[in-house]
Each structure stands twice: as structure tokens, then as C-alpha cells.
Fold this protein.
Amino acid sequence: MSTPVRERPAPEKADGRVSGGLLDPRQLIRALPDALRKLNPVTLRRNPVMLVVEAGAAFSTVLAVLGPSLFAWAVVVWLWLTVVFANLAEAVAEGRGKAQAATLRRARTGTRARRLTSRAPAEWDVVAAPDLRQGDLVVVEAGEVIPGDGDVVEGIASVDESAITGESAPVIRESGGDRSAVTGGTRVLSDRIIVKITQRPGESFIDRMIALVEGADRQKTPNEIALNILLAALTVIFLVATATMQPLAIYSRSVNPGGPDSLALTGDGVTGVVLVSLLVCLIPTTIGALLSAIGIAGMDRLVQRNVLAMSGRAVEAAGDVSTLLLDKTGTITLGNRQAAGFVPVAGVGEQDLAEAAQLSSLADETPEGRSIVVFAKQRYGLREREVHGARWVRFTARTRMSGVDLGDRQIRKGAATAVMTWVREAGGHPADEVGHIVDGISASGGTPLVVAEKGRVLGVIHLKDVVKQGMRERFAAMRRMGIRTVMITGDNPLTARAIADEAGVDDFLAEATPEDKLALIRKEQEGGRLVAMTGDGTNDAPALAQSDVGVAMNTGTSAAKEAGNMVDLDSDPTKLIEIVEIGKQLLITRGALTTFSIANDVAKYFAIIPAMFAAVYPGLDTLNVMRLASPQSAVLSAVIFNALIIVALIPLALRGVRYRPSSAAKLLSRNLYVYGLGGIVAPFIGIKLIDLIVQFLPGMS
Amino acid sequence: MSETAAGLLFVASLIVALAVVHRPFGDYMHRVYTSPRHNAAERGLYRLLGVRPDAEQSWGVYARALLAFSLVSVLFVYGVQRLQDKLPLSLGMGPVTDHVAWNTAISFVTNTNWQAYSGESTMGHLTQMAALAVQNFVSAAVGMAVAIALVRGFARHKAGTIGNFWVDLVRGTIRILLPIAFVGALVLVAGGVIQNLSGPHEITTLTGGAQAITGGPVASQEVIKELGTNGGGFYNANSAHPFENATSWTNWFEIFLLLVIPFALTRTFGRMVGQVRQGYAILAVMGVIALGSVLLTNAFELSGGGTVPQAVGAAMEGKEVRFGVSGSATFAAATTLTSTGAVNSFHDSFTPFGGMMTLFDMMLGEVAPGGVGSGLYGMLVLAVITVFVAGLMVGRTPEYLGKKIGPREIKLASLYFLVTPVLVLAGTAAAMGSERQRASMLNSGPHGLSEVLYAFTSASGNNGSAFAGLTVNTPWYDVALGLCMVLGRFLPIVLVLALAGSLAVRSPVPEGAGTLPTHRPQFVGLVVGVTVVLVALTFLPALALGPIAEGLS
């Protein structure tokens, strides 16, 4: 059970655009049976636009049976294909999730659990995993699969969570603290733990994941509902426009009785097949067909980035976020303070200070200590060395310094006050200069460590938080998107300001307590802003619950995961930024395809109106700007274009429209040109090209 | 000066005049609708009506008050017409027939002023003054009240109320319409429009025939006819009649009157939502569409397509010589762009494409600048729809003026947008599908179709102008067009008030770089585009079989 079930996130393109998975033609074929099954009007009811198309296709089929002609049958076939293509889009989008769900399911079934019946002399009975109740204690040993979600209450173990995260490196889980949560379906690699089950039966994390990736309980989001209403309204308008055209057509024909009947217009008005064709071409089939695929694919894109959204609403909210709360440690900075400079006092060489600093830190395994050794090596070319006969002085809370006694050399480094006291005790008189250096470093947000050799201060090590690479640019991009970033830190305001300035965040909250965090979120929300944040600890839970987009780290506690509405399986706090981009991309894709769909209608009118009425009013042939070969080929070409454009746009719907962080006005301009103007022009070209082929079919002239 | 140059000067001077009054007048209306104080006359009226002027209403109460007031108005106007022979100043005219009385009552209460009768031979002076002219004032004030209520929906935060209908109605009438109408009437009288209470005068014409010419309180009715975008003329010939519209400069003045409130309301809107630039953006949308329409209509008429116009040198059929081609074309565009429906020439006789422009203006939903109030609320609904699609394209839940546009708002806006096209197309189809109703057409072929399409567009859009060439004074047309008018007026109003209510409760979203800016040329262009494209897509089949077929033949 170590197969990684999920593809690793696609590598970020250089331009920072969010990329999605590719569309494999085989997926289309695999999804075909599902697409045909979805022709059932009961399932199609959720999609009013396509339901109208299906009704039209059925109606035309009847007409074609009653009055067969090659033209009628060709139209009928393409009308049905329009519906099938729409279903195909949805089926392909769902199909990707289904494959993942199948692998997940395998992890769940067949697991047996050893349930403790008494704690002291460990006794257990064996039950099937789905029978576990909340509060049950189970024991899991190396090589066994954890039977359900819970918290470790005893022991420590390394756990392979690749079934959930796709990450093969094992993680440590231990009782107490923020690393106690374990997930059902993951495997213990070493040691033995006792887990208290926190899930209700059938509601485990894996169960929810399966439901999510399958899109089984996919609820329409508010925005999707609103768009559906608009599309339904457009459908009604075009239904009315088409239906009411008939008496007008009959009248027009009756006042010009001279012309011959055509396959498009007879004394009884426009023929049913052509009328249905016009209707199907006018109603927004393109977006209607792709709308649910866009939604599913949006969730899927998150899953590909190892983020589980508990609801589509959360994904949509991500696009609306206007304030990001980011924890400093681990998100903005690398997490540990690192040596960034050696400042010697007068009369001491930098090289000497570096050597002393490195010497004192050789045995210091803290990240700060390691960073001093590494910095000395990189900047001053001092190799790590084996030192013999050294006596290492460990850091204690009382002495607040560490160091080394090497022969007659005694070197210490540590907090300024502690080291200065040590120097004075040894009879030294540290110069005022040391105090100035220390204050200077503190003021810049750094942490000073004074290095001294018996009775004499050598200088000061400047430790500072190192801001992750590229964060400044990302925050600048956020600002262009209109998103405010707020750094949350437990540091004092001085330090916080220095890091905030360096990272380029808009604001910071220093010496933050969980209550402060909650208060900040409430304040932002009162101003109408949507807030996103990440968190992992139990004390983050209230804030996670309060925020509009709360991303819990998978390594976090159950309480945190329960409170948030997304879980990041990689536990990477910077992913919040990507989540926002995906949310935006989802909305943009919907808007762009809606615009495209409506813009398409212009060309279709130019194809179909002259086709219907040029026989009665020859002047209307002026509108046939595409110079389509015949009325029949014009109508058929428009219908074919209308169907093919759905297939052509499936990859776009699944991948999402290209998105670059920029201001709203710029985004709109770009999308308007591509999808608005493009939507007007494309069908003129497409219909003409199809007509060039279709006109050679028999019965088209 | 050439006809074209004169036409351009005419339009340019109108624009200058409208621009000059825009700010002060818009600001004045802003004060009218936001001031907390009531004057003595208003307090008296409130006591009489038994309303508490300082009590705010929820959208439902506001809508019920409006509907109740309109129902009473309809019954009153109907009653006066039916009983006019028993009332003074009847000039000896008998009671108006039931279907005409119903049609006329609906028509004036809905601010449509579709006239299925000939004024001088049907209505007595009291009917004209007490029933019809009163409605010219209050139906206009109702439209403005609804617009202001919608604007309050945008401007208010977490509020359950959208104002008080009675206060809005009374203030709109007393503080805005009445004073301007008073001054305007004097100006018109100075321009040669008559104002008296005399009955018919028998005169002998130049050719020796006898003609009865009715006098009447014309100027007072003429001014509110334009100012309130009503359009119901005292005489059958409407603003083509010399007693209603005497000279070229009264023609200019009348166009100015019918445009001044709708355009200035955008300023009021900007002030009320606290962002004047948003008002300018809406003004720009209206301005672009209006100017485009005026110029195109002029171009089509001046180029004078067709055999007869080319033979005589200009498309003068159906136009008054004292206004000329351009003065007529500009008036036609202005009257159909607003919901006025007054005419100073016969749109039926326009060139096919010129006539189509008047149709298209109405199909736009009369939003550029539209009727008093109704133009603003129609345009704001279109802006909401535009914001929805465009807002998605910037990757956020769409918002307009800080208010999120959610499912409920889109539902109301979509229904609003559905009403008029459905009424127009269903009505036209019903008429064209019936042998008997087709008999009302005086022309056959595409032109006859245009006549019917025009009638239903005018009624459903509450414009009230007639293409002419269609005998509408039949029970069927009176009832059908009456239904179009009443549904075309009150369904949208209820939907708009519901929208106002649902917007008012929302708390605002602060503006940022991620917010779609709705005050820039980009957005203005987008709203223009959405409006024109949506309307074109809806009506193209009908237009293709009417004016387009005629124009391209």
C-alpha cells in the first residue's frame, strides 16, 4: 500500500500561471459510456440548457422520421451529438476523480482493527474498520494500516501517509501536541501507537475524500446557481424569440406566394428541423454544456495540488478573498533564524570572530547553531573540523549560553546579558560598542548573539529570520490582484516590522495570540472582506472556523482539520496563494465561456436568418456575409459548429482559462478581447470552413 | 445652411443645454429625495392621505403602496371617462367606450400614453385636465420614486427599508415636476402653444371648406407630456399639431424637456451612492447609445432611401415642413429613446431603416436615457447583468457599487429583462397569427409587420408612440395592448423594488485593485455592448422580417 495515488502537482510554469492536467484523448473514449448514460432526461434536468437541446433533438427525430431527408437526418444526428458532447465534458471531468476514488477505496476496505478492551494489561478484540465508533481505542503496530481517523494518545511512530498525500517520506506522529492526528488508511512503519478514534463511522477523511473527488455530493455553489439562472433566462428569451417567429414567417411567406418551398421555409412556416436548429444555436449551449465540468475540474485542480476542499463554496470564496493571513514562521520565513553576519568589535578581525563563532557552535545541533557553522564556512571559507580534547558547554535555560573549552581557550556565545556577565566575572570590561552593536541588530529585527573568549568580547553574531525566496514577488502579485497580506507572528513589533518590510507584506500582527487572530479576522469581515488563513494547531481552530477560507495543514490536529474548510495534504502554508488563484481561475473560466457562448450567436444569426428567409425576401441574402453555399448547408454548418465547439473547449474547461495575477481592469480587457471579440469572430470562420465541406454532401443544394 | 449642418447644430445645442443643467438639476433632485424636511403643503397632503411621512417602508410595503395607488388611479381615470357626459366641460362629448376607456386609463397610469382615441374628438376638457394630465404628473413621479428606491438599495447598508413611497411620490410631483411644468408652460405659450378653455371653433379654410378647431388647456398639458416622458397629446396629431408644437424652437424645447430629467437623474444617482463618477459612467452609457441612435436616425432619414424620397429630394412624407427632416428625425429618436412616445412626424413614413431605429430604441428597453425614473432603473438592471458576466471574468463574485450580485439579484434582474421581450414577441405573434387582427394593418408585406411589431413594442415598453398605419381602435387591440402596458409597467417595477430590497440588506464589499472598476470607459463600452447585443439577438428574427427585409429589398 505504498502506491502514490495522486500525480504530483504539475510543475509551475515560469510565468506563474496555474496549470492543470492535460486532456488525454483516451479519457474521452473512456467517458463515452457515462456520457450516453447521462442522456436520461432525469439526470439532465439539472442542466436546463441541455435539457432544451435534448427535447429539440427528440422533436427533430420525430420530424425526420415523418418526413425523411438527408438534411433533416444530418441535423438530427448533430443535435444528438451536441447533447452527447455536453455529457462527455462532464463525464471526463468526473472520470478523473473516479480513478482516484477507486485507489482510495482500496485503502479503506478490508482493514481490520485491534480494539482495546482494557488499557492496563493490553487486551483487544479484532473488528472491521467500518465498525469502529468514536472514542474507541485501537492499537496499531509497525506494518499495520491505521483503521480510522484519530489522535495518538500513547506512543510515537513513523507513519507512511502516501495513500493520502502521495508523499513517500514518512512522518512522525506522537501523542500530545500538534502532531497527534493520524488518518485512516495510512500505514505505521515503525513502533507502536494507541489511537483514539475521532471519526463517526462512514465519515472518515478517506470517505470524505472519495466523495469529494467523485463529485458525488457536489452542491452547486451560489455563483454557479446565479449563472444557471442567467442562462435559463437567456434560454427562455431565445425560446420565445424562435417560437414567436413562426406566425411572422407564415405571414411573410403568404404575402410572397411566388417563391418555391424550401427545406427551410414552406407555406406552413419555418420547418421544424430548422426552427430547432436555430433555437439550439442561439441558446447558450457552449457554457451550458461545460458549466458543470468547469466546476468539477476546479475542485480537481485543487486535488492535484493536494488540497482537499470540503465544499465548492470554499473554492469560490477563495477567489473572493481580499485579506490573507499568513503565519510568519514556515510561510514567509524559512522557519528558523539563521546567521546572517558577524560583527566584530574594534580590534578583532572578522575572520577571528568567525572562527570563534564556528568553534563554539560545532556541537550545537540547534538550527541556529548549524546555520552559524554553515555561514562561517560559506562566507569565510572555514571548514568544519574535528576538534579533539574539547569540552562542550551546552546551552541551559539558566546560563543562556553555550560554547566550548578547548585547552586554555574558553569560548562562549549567547544572549548579550548572559555573555557580558560572564565576561565581567572573568575580569573583562566589555566596551560600550558591544551594547551599540547589540541594540542595532535588535532594532533591525535580528537576534544578536554575543561571542566572547574569556574576559574579552569578540563580536556579535547577527541571526535573522530569512524570508523565503520569491515571497516578495508573490506578495506584489497579490497586491495587484487586490489582496492584502497580513503577517501573523509572535515576535515583538520591532522584529515583526523588520521582517514585514523585508517580505513586502502589507501589514503585520505582532505578539499575536489566538484571540488577536480571531479578533483581526472579525474586524476584516465586518468591513466586508473575505479572509483566508492557514493553521494547524488546536488553538488555531476558532480562527480557522471564523475565516472564510480556512486551510488546515494535514499535519495539524483533528480539531484544526475539522474547523477549516480545506485541508492541505502537503502541509505547505504558501499554498494558500495557489488556492486563491485557482478560485479566481474557476470564476474567470465560467465568465469567459459565457461571454464566448453569447458572442457566438451573432455569427449564427448571419448564417441562419438569410438561410430561412432569403427565398421570401431576396434582399436578406445581403446578410449572408459568409456566402454559405445553400440554406441547408448554412443551417447544418451552424449546428455542426455549435456541437464541435463544445468538444474543442473541453480542454479549456478542464484546464481553466489562463490566469495571471493582475488588476481587475487588465484581466477584463484581456478576457474581453480573447473571449468576447474572439467569440464573435471565431464562428464566422468556423461555420464558413464547415460549410466548405458540408456543401458537397448530397441534398445540400 | 444645409439640412445636415442645421441638424448637427440642433443636436449639438441640445447636448450643450443638457450638459449645463445636468449638475445643478441632478443635485437639486438629490436634495429633494434625501432632505429630512417636509414643507407645509406636503404635510397637509400627508395628513389628508393619512400617511406617516417619516416611517420607512420595506420593499414589499413600498410595492404594495405603489400598486394600490396605481389601481385607484386606473379606476379614477376609467370612471371620469365613462361619466364625462355628466361632468362639466365635456364639450358635449359622450362617454368613452369601455375598451377605449380601459386602454386609456391603463395607458396614462403606466406612463405609456398610448392613445387609442383622437383627443379633440373624444375627451372633454375636464377629462383631459383632471384625469389625463394629473396622471401625466403622478405616473412620472411613480417612475422616479422607483428609480430612487433602487438607488437607495445600492446606497444603503444592512437596511431593511428603501424609503417611503408616499413621500417620494409627493416630493417628485410637488418639488420637481410642478415647478418646471409651470415655467415650461409659460415658455411654450410664449412660443405660440395655446392655453384656453374654449370649445370648438368653426372656421372656413383657404379652400373654402369648414373645419372645427378645438381650443383647450394645451400648453399646461404639453409641458408635462414631455417633461414626464408621457407623450399623450392633446390633439391626435400630437406634437405635429401647430397648437402643441408651434415652431422649430418649441420643437427644440420639447426635446430638451423630455430628455432633461432622465439624464439628470444619473447625477442624482451618483450623489446618492456617494460616487459621482458612477453616475457619470451611467450617463456615458446612455449618452453613447442616445447619440448613436440620433445620428443614425438622422443619417437614414437625410440620405432618404427609397424611390419617392429620391424623386422629391428628401424623405418629407409624414414630416412637418416647419421641423424639417432632421428636426423630425431627432425628435423621433428622442421620443423613442425615452419612454415619451410623443411624435412630431409619422414614424410609419420614415425610411425603413429610420423606422427601424425608432423600433430598436424602444427594444433597448428605453434606457438611453429612458423614461423619467424607468430609464435609470432599467439601465441599472442592465449594469447588474453586465457586471455579473464581466465580474466573473476578473475572478471574483461579481459586485456592483460594493454590493455582491448573488443568485437572488440575478434572478430578479433576469426576470426584469425577460418581461418586455416576451410581451412584445408574444403580442406580435398573436396578432400576426390571427386573420382578423391582421386585417387592422393598412400596409401589407414587411411594412405591415413592422406596424404590428411597433405597436406591441411601444405598449410593452410603455413608450406610447404609434407607428401609425395600424387600426388599433378595436376591442382586441385595446385589451391586448392594455395588458402589455400594465404588465410591461408593473412587473418590472415590482422586480426592481424587490431587487432594491435585496441589495439594501447586503453589507458593502470594500473596493480594491481586484474589484471590477465600474466607472471607466471600459465598463461603459461593455454595458453599451451588452445592451445592444442582447437586444439585437432577441429581436433580430422579428426585425429581419420587418424593417430589414423592407430596407434591403
Summary: The longest strand of chain B covers residues 200-204. Chain B has a mean pLDDT of 91. Chain B touches chain A through 67 residues (CB under 8 Å). The beta strands of chain B are 200-204, 210-214, 399-400, 403-404.
